Amino acid sequence: MTMRPLVLLALAVVLAAGIGGAEGAGECSVRASAMAQQLAPCLPAVRNPQSAPTSSCCVGVRNINMRSPGCVCSVMSDVFKLAGLKPQVAIAIPKRCGIADCGGNTFP
């Protein structure tokens, strides 16, 4: 992984923590920075929709979904949008991992 994606994800962590406050995205019960750290392994799958998410990516998505059910789709959208990546690709990751289907959900 090159340094640029890591820098973008680090920036997203900082922005998500600042924008979302202490609780992160909406109804989530965990901090945005902790969620973004767990999603770092998903970066290649978000950048290339044709690649399969890694097992560590799916573990991170599963952990977020278990800790705060119902927020994983919003978190995927928020974190990767702040990193300058397409949120519509990011919200497909939970389904690609077999965890949750964000379906027709739209996020600002």
From TrEMBL:
The keyword Signal applies. InterPro entries: Bifun_inhib/LTP/seed_sf (IPR036312), Bifunc_inhib/LTP/seed_store (IPR016140), DIR1-like (IPR039265), Plant_nsLTP (IPR000528). Keywords: Signal. It comes from the Eukaryota. Residues 1-24 form the signal peptide. Pfam families: LTP_2. GO terms for biological process: lipid transport; systemic acquired resistance. This is Bifunctional inhibitor/plant lipid transfer protein/seed storage helical domain-containing protein. It comes from Triticum turgidum subsp. durum (Durum wheat).
